[in-house]
Amino acid sequence: MAAAVVAITSTWAVVLLDRSPQWNPWLRPLIVAAAAVAATALVASAYVHSAGWRRTLAGAGLAAAILASLGGPAAYAAQTISTGHTGSIPSAGPAATDGAGSGGGPGSASSSRAPGFAASAGSGGGSGGASSLPGASAPSGAATGPTGVTGSGPGGRFPGGSTSAGGTRPSASGANPGFGGGTGQVSSTLIKALETGASKYRWVAATDGSQSAASIELASGGEPVMAIGGFNGQGGNISLAQFEKYVAAGDIHYYIASGGTGGPGGGGTSSAITTWVEAHFTAKTIGGQTVYDLTAPRS
């Protein structure tokens, strides 16, 4: 039984490592050899009559089994620890080149990781302090608005609620790779514009996705931002009709085009909202970001 477990574990490790064939190619044959030694020694130890030889074979088999079973995960852990990581999507190990698509360099947030050793990214609407929409989940402690829209993180402000403003402006690096020209940074010019008259609005801005919204909230010290589509488009999507009602009520100050080049790339209601905003409001650039002042419609 022990030999079978080692064989299965090592085989799966080799399969996963084979998805990153250029990364430490010597590791796969080492695991195969260790698994063979472990299986042979463990089986042989059950048939020898000498107690001394049985202990020796069992010890050698155990050592080889540990190497065969934990060599892959240990190598992934070492690579992850030694590589700088940025971004809101957790990852582990080298970039994989399986059917999921080739990833970026090791440690990059956009890299595709080999399943089994990769950390799983959270799903749902709320993420990293961003506001989320109906149907999306929010972190524990999030403030909830009267229509089910949630705002997480400091400064989640709703009518009748309270606002807590942070004294510092933490870096927003590593958020949505498409936001802020690919850097995840939010310019001080944009933050100043959002903070001007912020107390008048339920949301200082709306943007596509909670990763972009999180960048803005973090950089602004917790000013509430509406995240359309949730995390990677997997959260609740607000309808265009509801968005228009919020705009008509003066609840949203700015619409920020994700990526800064004319709107988010998502589909569904996000695209419909983008099209409507572009048709009724004038685009301008603030701090390198394309924004629309939703309080000043075209005449």
As for the number of domains, it is: 2
**Gap from first CA to last CA:** 78 Å
The total count of strands amounts to 7
Residue ranges: pLDDT <50 for 5 or more in a row? 98-183, 259-267
Proportion of beta-strand residues: 5-15%
Radius of gyration: 26 Å
Structural class: alpha/beta
Could you say which overall geometry the principal axes of the C-alpha atoms support?
rod-shaped
How is the main sheet built?
5 strands, mixed
Order of helices and strands: HHHEEHEHEHEHEE
Averaged pLDDT = 70
| Helical proportion, percent range | 25-40%
| Separate helix tally | 7
- Give the spatial strand order of the biggest sheet: 4-3-5-7-6
Structure description:
With 299 residues, this protein is of the alpha/beta class. It folds into two domains: 2-82, no CATH class; 143-297, no CATH class. It is built from seven helices and seven strands. It has helices at residues 2-17, 27-45, 51-82, 188-195, 210-219, 240-248, 269-280, and strands spanning 143-144, 150-151, 203-208, 225-228, 252-256, 281-286, 289-297. The chain has a five-stranded mixed β-sheet, with helices on both faces. Strands 1-2 form a two-stranded antiparallel sheet. Helix 1 runs parallel beside helix 3. The termini are far apart.
